[in-house]
Amino acid sequence: KELFINKKNIKNIQIIYLGSIGKGRDSLFIEFIKKINNLEKYVEIDIFGSISIKLRNFIFKYQNKYIKINNYKKINRDEIILISKNYNLGLQITSDSYPFALSTKLYEYPALCLPQICLCNNGEIKDMIRKNKIGEIINSRSTKDEVSNKINYAINQIEFEDLYKFAKESTWEFRNKKLIKVIKNLQLYIN
User: Fold this and answer.
1) How many degrees, rounded to 5, is the angle at CA 118 between CA 91 and CA 44?
2) Are 133 and 77 in contact (CB under 8 A)?
3) Burial zone of 45 (CB within 10 Å; 0-12 exposed, 13-18 middle, 19+ buried)
4) How confident is the model at residue 40 (pLDDT cuts 50, 70, 90)?
5) CA–CA gap between residue 86 and residue 24 (Å, rounded)
6) Element (H, E) at 70
7) Are 118 and 29 in contact (CB under 8 A)?
């Protein structure tokens, strides 16, 4: 619960991305950066993990007085918990190549009390984020205004209670109990 302190009051938009941004994800990320170009708010995105050559070249050439993109080496779990307090959004990118893959970020960001922005066009992840009220979806068709509104909504309107509830209900212990209940109900139904 101590992670829930004051993230809505962080002056600038501080976004964390945990993991690699490779083929497919890099294009979605670049598209996202181009859409937040004119926010006129300072945005800092910290990527903790490897990135593609395409993305590395884009970041190297990219110039914008409001947007700063940093790439750091991967960090361990203990460090993630400590630094997550400096961010007000987690970034999730679901490549069109794997739209039905569920990233652990879906569970990690709520556990860190971070609403998430998910860059994706398809997949179950969109429904899970919406249903559980833990973030906003930005797809390729989202306009610059929609992107701005979704970022502001995620920072200012996503309730920490929803993040906490989702994180709590996403533990293996909790999910195991639900699965056992479903199996027992199936057994009763079959018998």
Assistant:
1) 30
2) no
3) buried
4) confident
5) 28
6) strand 67-72
7) no
Give the lowest-confidence range in 81-90, 96-105, 119-128, 134-143.
96-105
Query: Which one is predicted more confidently, 100 or 69?
Result: 69
**Exposure pattern of 68-97 as b/e (b: 16+ CB <10 Å)?**
ebebeeeeeeeebeeebbebbbbbbbbbee
Per-position b or e across 100-122, b if 16+ CB within 10 A of its CB: eeebebbbbbbbbbbbbbbbbbe
Contact 113, 140 (CB under 8 A): no
Which residue bears the tokens 């179950």? 124
pLDDT digits (tens, 9 = 90+) for 128-137: 899 999 999 9
Closest alpha carbon to 84 in 108, 107, 50, 67: 108
User: What radius of gyration, in Å, describes the C-alpha atoms of the chain?
Assistant: 18
User: Cα–Cα distance between 95 and 65 in angstroms, integer?
Assistant: 28
Tokens encoding 158 = 């996503």
CB 16 within 8 A of CB 49: no
